[in-house]
Design goal:
The complex is a heterodimer of chains A (553) and B (332).
Chain A: H1 2-13, H2 17-30, H3 33-43, H4 54-65, H5 69-79, H6 82-90, H7 101-109, H8 117-130, H9 133-144, H10 153-164, H11 168-174, H12 186-190, E1 207-208, E2 210-211, E3 225-229, E4 234-242, E5 245-250, H13 261-264, E6 274-284, E7 287-288, H14 291-295, H15 305-310, E8 313-323, E9 326-327, H16 333-345, E10 353-355, H17 364-371, H18 374-377, E11 381-386, E12 394-395, E13 400-404, E14 408-419, E15 428-436, E16 442-448, H19 454-466, E17 468-472, E18 475-478, E19 483-488, E20 490-493, E21 501-504, E22 507-511, H20 523-529, E23 543-544, E24 550-551
Parallel strand pairs in A: 1-12, 2-13, 8-10
Antiparallel strand pairs in A: 3-11, 4-5, 4-6, 6-7, 6-8, 8-9, 11-13, 14-15, 14-18, 14-19, 15-16, 17-18, 19-22, 20-21, 23-24
Chain B: E1 7-9, E2 12-15, E3 20-22, E4 30-32, E5 47-51, H1 52-62, E6 68-71, E7 76-79, E8 82-88, E9 96-102, E10 105-109, E11 131-135, H2 148-164, E12 168-172, H3 178-184, E13 193-195, H4 200-208, E14 217-218, E15 231-234, E16 250-255, H5 262-267, E17 272-274, H6 282-291, E18 296-300, H7 305-313, E19 318-320
The chains are: A alpha+beta (553), B alpha/beta (332).
Chain lengths: 553, 332
């Protein structure tokens, strides 16, 4: 655990990506492979789930350090991170025990899952006895699940590639998808040859587009670009693995075929050892449906035939990455597209498998005009891919762009705030926002926490601290005075907020110090964006008292 | 708050029996000052009374022209119907708790204090009293300090590592108190030590008071200094100024109790935070408050709610002294 703890603290103290990369390489070179594989697993975005409920953890600690539970909550509020709070409170008098990371996880972490409360308490007390100060935080991070070290998966791949002398793309593929430390070893990951791994079961790392920020002038001739609509669904890869079976992987690299069995019905019609990139969309007889319809299928495993009929989906294919085991990623987009088209031409129409059509225009101006159709079509704008581009790993610049339509904007009032986490612990940086209802009340519609500069966050933080009207757990009611301009991508009916609507991707566009709260937008305007005004009004809006203070439930 | 010894007025804490204020915010006739930090020792009072070791530091802060009297620690003075004495608070050089006795009732105003050892100032003295006004800057149990030797070791190790990598170490700490405390613990064999102009004037007074301060160079405008492998001590306010551009290959650190929390360090984009505080930690607050055997406790500075509730649950009569001068994070 000592090596791992020092890796953790070093990475935590570093502000430059390259420093982190170097540190990670030196760790992998020295560490026990049994420990390294865990680090690779965690940095791939995995976490140990369900080891302990945080409430139980808090009460164990409260008992152990003889402090009331409310005081532990107060500390959590200040620190902004549960693992860190626990570590600071648990303290340590030990200066260095040494069992490795792998042993710590297997002896003290994984067994917690099967234990009853008393056993769990005993085990945790024991851990708190043997961990040194430095080991406390990394351990609690593993325990509470949220574990990040400022290292992206891409950088993990780069580090492993440097250690093993293997291409980062090969590493990326080996650690893609779901795996455990029991079925993959460091040797497998760093293996200079390819034997022993069935690559056909794994998705390729997704190639991601950059947002197009500048004008299209810099992109050269339009005829060098393949233009598609930017569909709004779940980006995924569809694989055939031979023997009539297949897999569906999301961009988060979760296997999701159990949620979409109808898409797997396409497998028998496709060649073996194939990998297609595309998007799962809500798609009825009339064509594309909204993302909120798709959400009814999310997280639902083995959906009933009834729901499959009611909320149908389809796989909209973008790209062909592998066919009959041959990796096509370094071929130009144009050629991959041709192969994709001829492949899909032979697929029967009744199957939920479509091709993302091309948008053909002569000039950039014409294309720009077509972009105006996006909202009506229910898409987010255009995808621009250079016809000679490879399918690369991660986010690329220069060859793939998303050219999104401008977001919706509305002025909203900050009605409550919460302390942020991590870098923003101690700052009120998460805001609940409200607009005016028809009856002249402020009703909440969204939460937003990104978009302001550090200076602005500190400014708003000062405002919040001076204007707190009430305390509701970690939430502070704030005197409604501050107006923020919020950008968002869409509106849908939802019970999450009292207004009866929820926004998609709300983020702060700017501080509107020039505006008074009476200038904030109305719920009617926002509902209008989604065509929701026909829907029956909800009557139980959020209430304010005679001073205009928000009354939270 | 209002009792026979002290009451809270808009200008600050007032003693009617002696017609004086303690660390007042507004301009007053007679101000008794706990220590020379700007949020306690303000400009513009007609007369000042402070501890002997505080006097020369106070002069630097408010100017030679002010009318300042001082009193050695422990010595008593009668002001009107009140008896006043100064007792070391262990916060910075010359920092005092002020004991005020009126008609047999004793109140102690702590100013800022810390019971932990600090080689750059007088050791904290526990004063028994009926009422105690305590600071509460770090009033949560997560705040627990390591002994200062431990922190000095960390700082020297950091400096050494940076020097070996050919880098300058720029360490932020408040110009009065923290800077001298850092300096007193530096290992001079590692390299040259520089200080920002705001830190420099206080040094000779610390040396006069018998505190070991290593040889330093003051950073002068328009003068070329060789900062290679050096340690530079500067107040945190310069962090975002153009002053900082002199340093090319530099690692930045900050010494403050706030550095205990990772978020606070990361938000400032620092390479390193050192948990070195001039205030009492949680256990320090509890020990001192109990040690005074005071029947009434008032807490001020920082978020006193948690400490107050905790003490009340333990049967100690404690409340937050509202409006007695809230302050933010910046001043540690």
């Amino acid at each position: 655990m000592k090596n791992f703890a020092s890796l953790f603290h070093d990475l935590d103290g570093m502000t430059k990506t390259n420093d982190r990369l170097d540190r990670l390489v030196s760790y992998f070179k020295e560490a026990d492979p049994n420990d390294s594989i865990w680090v690779s697993w965690f940095l791939s975005g995995n976490r140990i789930k369900g080891a302990i409920k945080t409430g139980e953890l808090r009460s164990f600690l409260s008992e152990r350090v003889n402090l009331p539970l409310w005081l532990i909550e107060e500390c959590h509020d200040r620190v902004g991170d549960l693992a860190e709070t626990l570590s600071l409170l648990a303290g340590s008098s030990v200066t260095g025990q040494s069992i490795g990371l792998d042993q710590t996880i297997r002896k003290f972490l994984l067994p917690l899952r099967g234990m009853d409360t008393d056993e769990r308490k005993k085990l945790l007390y024991k851990v708190w006895d043997i961990l040194s100060t430095e080991e406390m935080l990394p351990f609690h991070k593993l325990l509470t699940g949220g574990f990040r070290m400022g290292v992206s998966k891409g950088n993990l791949c780069k580090a492993l590639a440097r250690v093993g002398g293997v291409e980062p793309a090969v590493i990326a593929q080996r650690i893609a998808g779901s795996w455990t430390c029991d079925d993959l070893s460091m040797e497998d990951i760093l293996n200079p040859t390819n034997e022993g791994i069935d690559d056909m079961n794994r998705p390729f790392p997704f190639c991601l587009a950059s947002p197009l920020q500048e004008a299209t002038d810099g992109l050269g001739k339009l005829e060098d670009w393949q233009v598609e609509w930017k569909w709004d669904g779940i980006r995924s890869q569809l694989l055939t693995t031979g023997g009539g079976s297949g897999m569906l992987w999301s961009r988060g690299e979760e296997s999701i075929e159990e949620s979409f069995p109808e898409i797997l019905e396409c497998i028998p019609y496709l060649p073996s050892d194939l990998c297609m990139d595309g998007e799962i969309l809500a798609w009825g007889r009339e064509g594309l449906r909204s993302f909120s319809r798709l959400q009814k299928r999310l997280g639902r495993k083995n959906p009933s035939p009834a729901i499959q009929r009611k909320e149908p989906v389809r796989f909209q294919a973008y790209d062909l990455l592998r066919i009959n085991g041959e990796d096509l990623r370094s071929q130009p987009m144009e050629q991959r597209r041709e192969k994709l088209e001829s492949l899909l031409a032979g697929i029967p129409d009744h199957l939920p498998l479509g091709l993302s059509s091309l948008v053909q225009e002569k000039t950039w101006d014409d294309l720009k005009a077509r972009r105006e159709e996006s909202r009506e079509r229910g898409v987010e704008g255009f995808m621009l891919k250079r016809k000679d581009s490879k399918y690369e790993t991660g986010r690329v610049k220069g060859s793939w762009y998303k050219w999104k339509i401008d977001p919706y904007m509305a002025d909203m009032v900050v009605v409550s705030a919460q302390l942020g986490h991590g870098k923003r612990a101690n700052l009120y940086s998460d805001y609940t926002l409200a607009v005016w209802s028809e009856s002249g009340e402020l009703v909440t519609v969204a939460k937003a926490y990104s978009g302001l500069s550090n200076e602005e966050i500190e400014e708003v933080d000062r405002f919040v601290r001076k204007n707190i009207t009430g305390k509701f757990g970690p939430v502070r009611g704030v005197r409604p005075e501050l107006v923020l301009e919020i950008a968002f991508e869409g509106v849908r009916a939802s019970g999450r907020h009292k207004s009866g609507v929820a926004l998609r991707f709300p983020r702060i566009h700017r501080l509107r110090k020039d505006k008074k709260i009476v200038d904030a937008d109305s719920l009617e305007t926002i509902r209008g964006y989604a065509g929701l005004n026909q829907i029956e009004d909800s009557t139980d809006g959020i209430k304010t008292d005679s001073d205009g203070n928000l009354l939270l439930l | 708050m209002k009792n026979e010894v002290l009451e809270l007025r808009p200008e600050g804490l007032f003693c009617p029996a002696g017609d004086f204020y303690i660390d007042p915010r507004g301009k007053v006739k007679k101000a008794i000052i706990t220590h020379a930090h700007a949020d306690h020792a303000r400009l513009g009072h007609k007369s000042y009374l402070c501890s002997k070791n505080c006097e020369s530091l106070l002069k630097i802060r408010i100017g030679e022209g002010a009318f300042i009297e001082s009193l050695p620690f422990g010595g008593k003075i009668r002001i009107g119907e009140a008896t006043v004495s100064f007792h070391p608070a262990g916060h910075i050089l010359g920092s005092a708790q002020i004991r005020v006795e009126v008609g047999g009732q004793v109140w102690v105003v702590s100013g800022d204090y810390k019971p932990q050892a600090d080689q750059t100032c007088e050791a904290f003295e526990l004063v028994k009293c009926h009422g105690f006004i305590s600071e509460c800057t770090f009033g949560l149990p997560v705040y627990r300090w390591l002994p200062e030797e431990e922190i000095h070791k960390q700082i020297n190790q950091w400096w050494n590592e940076n020097a070996e990598a050919g880098q300058t170490s720029l360490l932020f700490g408040y110009s009065l108190g923290k800077a001298q405390r850092i300096l007193a613990g530096l290992d001079e064999s590692v390299g040259k030590i520089f200080v920002h102009g705001a830190v420099f004037p206080f040094l000779e007074h610390y040396r006069k008071a018998g505190v070991h301060i290593p040889k330093v160079q003051k950073i002068e405008k328009n003068k070329e200094h060789d900062f290679n492998q050096a340690m530079v001590i500067a107040p945190p306010a310069v962090e975002d100024s153009s002053w900082i551009r002199k340093f090319r290959n530099v690692k930045k650190g900050f010494a403050s109790g706030w550095m205990l929390i990772r978020g606070a360090r990361r938000r400032r984009n620092l390479d390193r935070g050192f948990v070195l505080s001039d205030h009492a930690d949680w256990n320090g607050l509890i020990d001192v408050i109990r040690g005074t055997e005071a029947e009434q406790i008032k807490v001020t500075h920082g978020n006193g709610d948690a400490l107050t509730r905790f003490l009340c649950e333990k049967g100690v009569s404690c409340s937050v002294l509202a409006g007695a001068g809230m302050r933010g994070e910046e001043e540690e």
